[in-house]
Design goal:
The structure holds 2 protein chains of 2 kinds. By secondary structure, chain A is α/β, with parallel strands linked by helices. Chain A is 39% helix and 18% strand. In chain B, helix 1 (18-32) runs parallel beside helix 4 (105-122), helix 3 (71-84) runs parallel beside helix 4 (105-122) and helix 6 (203-212) crosses helix 9 (281-292). The complex binds iron/sulfur cluster.
Chain lengths: 363, 338
């Protein structure tokens, strides 16, 4: 793994920053879609290094944060069913729903387990044949294929006790929704690195073509991001809009066909509810007909009760990039990573958490 | 003759009866034997004179075996290091095993073997202990609880609250090795790496440092929560701020690579054989030189400085010249899902 250092070399970074300064004359607003980018930008202090002409916006790209409260309530209700083991990725269990969180129901005796991959969840199901294991599937195109693979595996093994709640979301439709809303004007888009590795850079072509917005796919190292910003600035200055890749080591134009096939074998697109954005057509994934017996929502009876948002939390607006975490009255006082009010403060990729944890000194 | 040997730990091993006796004799006494332990009295009795340091800790690591060590080695090193961090010379440890029914006897034997090796390396004796066996599901394979006592040499006063503005921050080597080595072997996250845990007793290194300067102000081993959390603790306790420079913090290639892949920050990853020392500026170079001659301090570096402004705050200059706050860790570092 020799490559990382090359992408952090400070001389290279300084050179890139100088080039950005030299070329950037117009005022621009660049949005990073992905929460991983938000964290990297805050962590390496990239905002402070960019010229005043460049404003950076954080987009909705954190799978934990965009999960609607009603969906979290659903997971909590399922976890409460006697005999159920609910397995999910770490950040999810701390996110507050309308009344409780998975962490709280776990403390109350529900069997909620943190896993690092779907393999863990399958293993738990094998070891507990008399119980029902529900995997809370969350994530974008990056994780959906692995969840699809687990369903196929469970089918092959004839497992009768493995289920999935699919809260998976698709990125291109929500970017479209965001741009269509006209709420924020964006002059360039930093496209998600890992998602693009699956869907391919071609998936962003509609943005460059239909909206005239330059797109560059970026990796997660500071040099990747600076390179990406530089490429965006060049496009904007030259009044161009096309899709470029600043993450060649990870992304190809056509993406990962095998992963996509797997994903669409098990799942089909459906409309999905995003926190702060409401119902977005074709932006979610549900189990397709052939795999419906794995759908936890169909297999169990449960009542999550009515959903409501935490009082005072503006996560929805933060996710739509209309506001920044610092606009929130609760930021850093009532709401901190230790006692989070909204998911944006919980998730390791959440904007509020990134602003709080990596807030620039003196800011 | 009754055949008592079993290849798995069963509840009866914790009963206090014959099997329990056999477990103690065959597994623990054989490996850890010393006159104080061999007496098998209810308490170990020993003489001491001077200032005593006393600490306790519990070890619940998962998986119990990892590259570069296991829960037994970790328990000894961790406790020895807690004593060493106040400058104490570790003397005696207690070890209490809480075993989940069904643990292979072979695993236990292997773990007690590494307890013995680590204790020998650190020059401490296990003088008392306990074994409990709990129902399957009531513990995760094996938990170890320890206590340790050590003697603090005359003139040594090391505390988290002793740092002063101007002090240099010395780190004994690369960060994140233990955390990433353990993570790489978690179920479902397995990735191949040659990386080994840095798990090691640091009392030898500390003794050398104290020889150069008994006036070391503060010292701590950045275990869970990583370097970031430790520096925050020290800054808060001493009511000072700490400035570090990203470029000066040693991080192995493998750790960086894994952190990039998983979306983790090495500053928050656990270490088990590293220490941070805050020392008067005039002593820093001499201490650093001495540290580098010790195996545990070979990669030592001065990574920053203690300052008076903004008490409690840790700030890092990034390698590109920006600066950012380094906060404490909340919860466990978790790999990204995006
Ligand atoms: S600071 Fe907390 S309450 Fe405010 S938007 Fe962020 S998560 Fe919600």
């Amino acid at each position: 793994m020799k490559f990382v250092d090359e992408f952090r070399r400070s001389e290279l970074a300084r050179g890139l920053i100088r080039s950005i300064q030299q070329h950037s004359t117009k005022r621009v607003r660049l949005m990073e879609f992905c929460g991983g980018h938000t964290v990297a930008i805050m962590k390496h202090g990239i905002r402070q290094l960019l010229p005043a002409t460049i404003e950076m916006l954080s987009g909705p790209g954190c799978p934990v944060c965009v999960t609607d409260n009603a969906d979290i309530d659903k997971a909590i209700a399922l976890a409460r069913i006697p005999g159920v083991i609910l397995a999910t990725f770490g950040d999810m269990i701390r996110v507050p729903g309308s009344r409780s969180s998975l962490q709280e129901v776990k403390a109350d005796g529900s069997d909620v387990r943190i896993v690092y991959s779907t393999l863990d969840a399958l293993q738990i199901a094998r070891e507990n044949p008399s119980r029902s294991v529900i995997f809370l599937g969350i994530g974008f195109e990056t994780t959906a294929p692995t969840v699809a693979a687990s369903v196929i595996q469970a089918e092959q093994e004839g497992m009768r006790n493995y289920y999935v709640i699919s809260l998976h979301k698709l990125c291109p439709p929500v970017i479209k929704e965001l741009l269509d809303s006209g709420e924020v004007k964006v002059s360039g888009l930093i496209c998600p690195g890992h998602v693009s590795a699956i869907v391919g850079s071609r998936s962003w072509e509609f943005i460059a073509r239909d909206y005239g917005i330059p797109c560059v796919v970026s990796g997660f190292e500071p040099l990747d991001i600076l390179q990406c910003v530089y490429m965006l600035v060049l496009q904007i200055e030259q009044a161009e809009s096309k899709v470029e890749i600043a993450y060649r080591r990870g992304v190809r134009p056509e993406g990962n066909q095998r992963a996509l096939e797997l994903m669409y074998q098990v799942f089909e697109p459906c409309s999905a509810r995003w926190r702060g954005m409401g119902l977005v057509p074709d932006s979610g994934l549900r189990l397709s007909k052939a795999y419906q017996r794995f759908d936890a929502e169909l297999a169990f009876e449960f009542d999550p009760g009515p959903a409501f948002e935490p009082k005072g939390c503006i996560c929805g607006e933060v996710l739509r990039a209309v506001k920044t975490p610092r606009d929130c009255k609760l930021f850093g006082t009532v709401c901190t990573p230790a006692s989070p009010v909204g998911p944006c403060m919980v998730s390791s990729e959440g904007s509020c958490a990134a602003y709080y944890i990596y807030g620039a000194a003196g800011e | 003759m009754e055949l008592l040997v079993s290849d798995k730990i069963i509840l009866a091993h914790g009963s206090g009866g014959k099997l329990a006796r056999e477990l103690i004799e065959k597994t623990f006494l054989q490996a850890l034997s010393n006159p104080l332990l061999a007496k098998l009295d209810d308490s170990a009795v020993f003489d001491f004179e001077g200032r005593l340091a006393f600490t306790t800790d519990s070890y619940v690591v998962n998986p119990i075996f990892f590259h570069g060590g296991d829960i037994g080695k970790l328990a000894v090193c961790g406790t020895v290091n807690d004593l060493a961090m106040v400058g104490a010379v570790p003397l005696y440890l207690s070890l209490s095993f809480i075993i989940e029914e069904g643990l292979p006897q072979e695993d236990l034997t292997r773990i007690v073997g590494s307890v013995q090796m680590a204790a020998r390396e650190a020059g401490v004796q296990i003088v008392t202990g306990d074994t409990k066996v709990v129902n399957r599901g009531s513990a995760d394979k094996l938990f170890i609880n320890t206590a340790g006592v050590g003697l603090v040499p005359e003139g040594v006063d090391i505390s988290g609250s002793n740092a002063r503005p101007g002090d240099k921050v010395i780190l004994s080597g690369t960060i994140g090795d233990h955390g990433i080595a353990v993570l790489s072997q978690r179920e479902g996250l397995r990735f191949s790496t040659r990386l080994k845990s840095d798990c090691a007793p640091l009392n030898g290194l500390v003794a050398e440092m104290i020889k150069v300067s008994p006036r070391i102000h503060s010292m701590r081993d950045p275990t869970r929560g990583g370097l970031a959390t430790t520096l925050n603790e020290l800054a808060a306790q001493s009511k000072v701020s700490i400035r570090i420079e990203e470029e000066k913090i040693p991080v192995r290639e493998e750790v960086r690579g894994a952190c990039e892949m998983l979306g983790l920050d090495p500053l928050y990853i656990a270490n088990e054989g590293k220490l941070v020392a805050l020392v008067a500026p005039e002593d820093a170079e001499a201490i650093l030189k001495k540290m580098r001659r010790n195996t545990c301090g070979r990669g030592a570096a001065i990574i920053g400085e203690v300052q008076a402004d903004h008490p409690g705050r840790v700030v890092m200059k990034t390698r590109f010249g920006a600066s950012r706050i380094v906060d404490m860790l909340v919860g466990d570092p978790l790999p990204r899902i995006c």
